[in-house]
Amino acid sequence: MTDVPNKNLDNHLGYDIQSSVPSTQVALSRVGITKVRRILRLREGARATTGTLFFAELDLFVHLDAKRAGVHMSRFIENIENIATEMSAESSPDVETLAERMALAMARTQGAARSEVHIRAQYPMSKRAPVSGMEVEDIYTFIGYSISDGTSTRRAVGVEVNGLTACPCAREMTAEYSRELLLRSGYSPAQAEEITSILPLASHNQRGKGTLILGSESPLSADDLVRIVEQSMSSEIYELLKRPDELHVVRKAHENTRFVEDVVREMVRGVAESLPNLPDDTFILARQENFESIHTHNAYAERCGLLGEMRAELAGSGTGALRLLSLEAWLDSLLRRV
Q1: Whole-model pTM?
Q2: What pLDDT was estimated at residue 335?
Q3: Residue ranges of E strands in 88-134
């Protein structure tokens, strides 16, 4: 049996219901699609010349005017496919540039006053175990944010990194308990102090996830951001460790104890010292979440704002007042100027 075209159906397909006026006229902050999974070829770090493949998840949103019923959901995917085609014909961009392109394209194709793109790309990086020198490949998450009004864009780039922290408080309690045991065993206070200063001391430790996001027009290396986050914790962690490597990591962590608050402050200091050429109006978000080993809850700390204000605090010339500026507010400040 041959299908006969339905002219009435064709007429209905030509009606753009998304552009009609909804019965309830309320603007919506975000409308779009989430968790779009793609394999992308991006240029990052040591692979800046040839590019490398990333597994990525994308969230794409636009602002919806009160007088429009809906957005064209298929156009989000069309934007991804068109930009992916462009990427194959040229030098591949980094993750934040890709987010920027997509945000600009979406604002234009959807006729939206504001568009927003989030990209989370899983990125393999090779590193060597600290003692054995064995090469291992760990997976990091690169993050790209961008917003656009169809003419201008603003973007931010970041990383999520796992590491190890050891608790300073528990280590000090262990040291005090060890001194008491030594005194009871007949050692002098000076001897007890010397022994506890030499021997390794226990603490509880936990794996933590550090997030560092910077918003700037200056070029940023995701590899540099990974290094800053890893160095802010008690120790880096590795997918593969031989016994000498394991001893090194555990010893390093317990000699370098840090609270969750310490890690965030070290990230801020690391950005200020390692990236001195960044302008003061660079946005910075530093976040640490520790998955506690002796509690059922997690420990959390965060600082966000402008780098210039944090530089002043580090130099001792800050006002001491904490001005809250979220990533979303910093991104949206672009749109308030146009």
Answers
A1: 0.86
A2: 64
A3: 115-128
